[in-house]
Amino acid sequence: xxxxxxxxxxxxxxxxxRLDNVSFSLEEGKITGFIGRNGAGKTTTLHSLLSFxxxxxxxxxxxxxxxxxxxxxIKQRLGFVSAGMSFYAKKKLRQIxxxxxxxxxxxxxxxxxxxxxxxxxxxxxxxxxxxxGMKIKYMLALAxxxxxxxxxxxxxxxxxxxxxxxxxxxxxxxLANQGKTILFSTHITSDLEKTADNILYLSRGRLxxxxxxxxxxxxxxxxxxxxxxxxxxxxxxxxxxxxxxxGFSALLQASERKDFPLPCRQPSLEEIMIHLEKxx
Amino acid sequence: MIGKLLQKELKLCLHPTSFLLPLLVALxxxxxxxxxxxxxxxxxAVFFICLTGRENHDITxxxxxxxxxxxxxxxxFLLVMLIEWAQLAxxxxxxxxxxxxxxxxxxAGMDANLALIGEGFFCFGLFHLVFFPSYYKNVDKVGISFxxxxxxxxxxxxxxxxxxxxLPLYRNILDTPDPLNLGAKLLFCAVGLLFYLSxxxxxxxxSQKRFQQLDIR
Lengths: 280, 217
Prior knowledge:
heterodimer; A: alpha/beta; Rossmann fold; four-stranded antiparallel β-sheet; 10 helices
C-alpha cells in the first residue's frame, strides 16, 4: 500500500498542552479513525497537517513530498472538512463555489453538479439555512469536485442526528471504495466501528495506538465484576477500572485473558477508549 | 493567484459598510467640519471587513485553498487600498463641489482643498502601520487592533487641526482655498503619498511576517 501521508515525531507545545512526538501514516483508499477525548490534541494534529499551526518539530510528508516545499501542489489534492466551521454564513453557496472554483486546476464542474444533486444541495441557499449535516455535505462536494484524493475530516459527524450521521458514514464508505483516503477525527467511536479500517488513538497529546480497527479491538477484553470478585493478584493488571450500574468494569490485555478467572467479553471502541483514558 | 484572492475579497469579504462608510467623505460638503474625520469612517469599514471575516472563518477557508499564506495578506491590503483610492477620488470630487457650492473657510481645521487629499494619505498610511501588523499578530483580537489604529488616527487628526491654527505653513499656505498655493499643496500631497506608500509597504511586510508565524486555532 502507498503511504499518502507520513507524520514523524510531530511536537507542538502550548502553555497548558503538548503534542508529543506523534507519528503515523495513512494508507491509500483507507478510512483512518482519529480518536481521543476532547482536548486530546486531535484538532491540533489536523491543523498542524494543514499548517494552520506551526509544529515545533517533526516532519509531515504528503505523497512523499515535504509539505512546506510543496504546499500549493499538495493542497490541490487535499480536502479539509470541519464540522465546527461554517464559512460565509450569509453568502449563497453559488457565490462561495464561484470563488472557490478558479483556485483548482482539476475542478470538475460535472462532478460538482453531480454531488449537489446527490446531496440535495441548493446553490441559492446560504450556509446559515443549512443543517449541520448539509454544511458538511457542501464542504465535501467542494472537496470532491476539485478531485481531492485525501479528505481530512475534523469531527464531521458531531452534532448530527443518528440518521444524518448514518447517511454521511455511507458517503465516506462509498468514497473509500472509490479510492479516496480519509482521515476522520471524532469522539463518536461508534461511527468508526462502522467505517474505519485503521485507528489512531491520541490521549493527552500522545499517540497511544496506531493499529487496524480489528487489531485494536482484539488487543483488549472487558471484564465486568462485583466488588471483591477479582483476585488480589489481578487487581494491578486491570486497565482503567471504573464503576458500572451493576458493579465494576475494567479492560484486560487480550493476551492475559486465558488465565483470568472471570468471564470477559469483546469491548467496544468506546469502552476501550474510556478505560484507557481512566488508566492514563 | 493574487487576482483570484482579490476576487475572493471582493465577492465574499466586503461588508455592506465597506460601500456606505467611505461615502461619508461627502461630509466635505458640510460647512465647518473636521474633514479628515471622514477618513476615519473608511478605517471603520476596514474594521468591519476584518471582524466579519473572523465571524465567517474567512482565514480558515482561505488557508484551505491552494494559496500561500503571505498572499492572503497581500490580497487584503489590495482590497483596502482599492477602497481608499476610491474614497480619495470621491474626496477630490467633493472638494471641487465644495469650492463651487460653499466657498468659505472651514472653522474646524483644514479647508476643503487639495491638501485634504494629502492628509488622507497620511491618515491611511498611519492606520495601516498601526492596525495591520497588530491585526495579523492575532486575527481574533480585531477590536484591540482597531482601537490602536483609531487612537493613532485621531491623534493625527487632532495634530493636523492644531497645526492649521498654530503652524504658519499650514495656516498660511495649506489651509487656504484652492487654487491658492496649488504648488505647495501638490507637494504636500506628494509627501503624503510617499508616506502612504512607504508605511503601507512596511505594514505589509510586517503583517506578512507576523501572519506567517501565527497559529490559527
